[in-house]
Specification:
Elements (H helix, E strand, L loop, with lengths): L2 E5 L11 E3 L10 E2 L35 E2 L8 E4 L4 H4 L7 E10 L8 E15 L5 H10 L16 E5 L5 E8 L1 E5 L5 E5 L1 H7 L12 E3 L2 H11 L2
């Protein structure tokens, strides 16, 4: 068994802000803006409300409030898709493995949580679909079956797309975010988000985790067990 950790969600480089974390540890999972104009997604930051009842747009720059959202991963039918270099890592996942998502979150109002990276959810892998290897009939069937995935809402060539499907009974968006980073200085003394000392010990990950490439892979049995305890699996 192994786990792959990926960063997802809106950030300062893609959207101009971070999603909020609240005093009780709850948070909003806010996806990145949809970059493809052909997408038939109908949800925007303005018309989609979060767990606290406020529209996502209330936490974000006004210039993107009416933008469509690229909801990926999505925690309704539990799919995550990617046609980029990350596909090579996703193809290594097998049934029963964990695909774990983390995001940048910032404290809301008088919250004492640090602006940092947090675990926000996970899939227990049920199936991995490589769209390069599908027959025409299988392509039609999979597009219909996983129509809720953001990539299948785009009217584009599906070349290189890989979709990971989570077991609905063993996958979830967390109720409380789990801190996994701390600010550390780089060689020039500039701060960056690195795996916290605690996560280095528990999960065996270290160094910068600001980006998803390369994804962090955990395959040590003891570290996997520590991760499952963190996620309360």
């Amino acid at each position: 068994m192994k786990a792959v950790l990926l960063r997802v969600g809106i950030d300062k480089g893609c959207g101009g802000a971070l999603a909020p974390i609240f005093p009780d540890g709850s948070f909003e999972y806010i996806p990145i803006p949809e970059s493809d104009t052909s997408s038939n997604e109908i949800r925007t930051f303005a018309n989609t409300r979060g767990m606290d009842g406020k529209p996502f747009a209330s936490y974000l720059p006004s210039k993107i409030k009416n933008d469509k959202m690229h909801f990926d991963p999505e925690f309704e039918t539990f799919t995550y898709g990617d046609p980029s270099v990350k596909r090579n890592y996703l193809l290594k996942l097998e049934e029963g493995d964990l695909l774990v998502f983390y995001a940048g979150l910032t404290p809301h109002e008088n919250d004492t949580h640090p602006e940092a990276l947090y675990l926000i959810g996970y899939f227990t892998v049920k199936r991995v679909v490589d769209f390069n290897n599908l027959s025409e009939k299988e392509l039609i069937e999979n597009c219909k079956q996983y129509s809720g995935n953001a990539h299948l809402k785009r009217r584009l060539d599906l070349q290189d797309l890989v979709i990971v499907v989570g077991d609905k009974e063993k996958s979830q968006l967390l109720n409380r975010a789990i801190l996994i980073s701390q600010r550390k200085p780089d060689k020039r003394g500039r701060p960056y988000h690195a795996a916290s000392d605690q996560m280095e010990k528990l999960l065996g990950i270290k160094g910068s985790i600001q980006r998803s490439i390369p994804p962090r892979i955990i395959d040590d049995k003891d570290k996997i067990n520590n991760l499952k305890k963190l996620l309360d699996i």
